[in-house]
Amino acid sequence: MIILAFESSCDETSVAVLDVDEDHRKILSNKIATQISVHALYGGVVPEIASRAHCEAISGLCYAAIEESGVTMDQVDAVAVTYTPGLIGSLIVGVSFAKALAFSYEKPLIPVNHIKGHVAAAYLDHPELEAPFFAIVVSGGHTSMINVASPTEFIPVGRTRDDAAGEAFDKSARKLGMPYPGGAEMDRLASLGNPDAIKFPLAAIKGSLDFSFSGVKTAVVNYLHTKEMKGEEVCREDVAASFTKTVCDSIVKQLKNAYREFGYGKLVMAGGVAANSHLRNAVGNFCRNNKIKLYIPNVGLCGDNAAMIGMQGYYEFKAGVTAGLDLTAKATSGKSTL
Ligand code: KG4
Ligand code: ZN
């Protein structure tokens, strides 16, 4: 089945063409237009600028993705699009474009939840992966722990109550003088520092599977502020390493608690922060020690991209999920459902 997929929930416009079926998953093209350099000027994503940039990019990117894939619109079986959660203006651009295309070419339209899409990235790299499994999505906008009962049935069991993990990375990185988004640079810097140099508070909330990353972020800010007031030198590498260790320990702690509760044998870790080398190691060790099979998409598929939306779109389509032209973008998908 050939799927044309769109992703525009935050600051990347992406269009992909997938050839996918039970026995094969092939990414024919996966074009991404990032807006990072524009938002970097402001230290974070500016929603209105993001929507405009999606408008400018989406049509050209669609042509480029189709051309690179080698298929024609006649061969496309369905159009998939992220409709929730995300920045509302950004989502509307992708949803409107996909709806217009599906209507004019008379193709089925498949609505895809962005978080489900992140998890689906794992199927692209690991065709042998089958639900049920446990999943954690760690990204710039989300930190969710989910029991995945089937490719389309997601039961959320834990989430962040404030900042997402990636947000904490980006804000701490900014305080250390790095440009937005600083997650990848923090990863590099953390490798050079002492992870036990500074004690920051864990982000795992006791008695639940939830997180609170705002505390560790504030602790980094306070630490840097105090050092500055005292006129003391800051070892940026130690701050990055200690912060990263705190995030990794918090995530592993909640994965352990979830393991105690659900006893899962397979774990998928996805989302932009799943690219973090220290987190991949920490979660890798936890899984090895407990004989859990770990699936992480390759780094190129961890961040926002349309191939993952096409992959999830395939499962939604198989489960009979399609949308009419009344499909609307939704900024939030709700706390208890996905
Ligand atoms: O999944 P994603 O592309 O967008 C959202 O859905 O939010 O995730 C982007 C986030 C950013 O916060 C970015 O700093 C973070 O992923 N990120 C990383 C790394 N690479 C990207 N965080 C830590 N370490 C990395 N290597
Ligand atoms: Zn994302």
Key features of this structure:
5-stranded mixed β-sheet; 10 strands; alpha/beta; 11 helices; binds 5'-O-[(R)-(carboxyoxy)(hydroxy)phosphoryl]adenosine; binds zinc ion; 44% helix; 338 residues
Quick summary of this structure?
Helix content is 44%, strand content 20%. With 338 residues, it is of the alpha/beta class.
Bound molecules: 5'-O-[(R)-(carboxyoxy)(hydroxy)phosphoryl]adenosine, zinc ion
Low-confidence segments, ≥5 residues, pLDDT <50? none
**How many helical stretches?**
11
Task: Tell me, rounded to a whole number, the average pLDDT.
Answer: 97
Question: What would you note in describing this structure?
Answer:
Helices cover 44% and strands 20% of the residues. The protein has a five-stranded mixed β-sheet with strand order 3-2-1-4-5, with helices on both faces. Helix 4 packs across helix 11. It has helices spanning 36-40, 47-69, 88-105, 114-125, 165-175, 183-190, 214-229, 236-262, 277-289, 299-302, 306-318, and strands at 2-7, 12-21, 24-34, 78-84, 109-113, 133-138, 143-150, 153-159, 266-270, 293-295. The mean pLDDT is 97. A hairpin with a 2-residue loop joins strand 2 and strand 3. By secondary structure, the chain is α/β, with parallel strands linked by helices. It has eleven helices and ten strands. The two termini are 25 Å apart. The structure holds 5'-O-[(R)-(carboxyoxy)(hydroxy)phosphoryl]adenosine and zinc ion. 5'-O-[(R)-(carboxyoxy)(hydroxy)phosphoryl]adenosine binds next to helix 5 and helix 6. 5'-O-[(R)-(carboxyoxy)(hydroxy)phosphoryl]adenosine is lined by residues 10, 139-141, 166, 169-170, 181, 183-184, 186-187, 271-273, 275-276, 303-304.
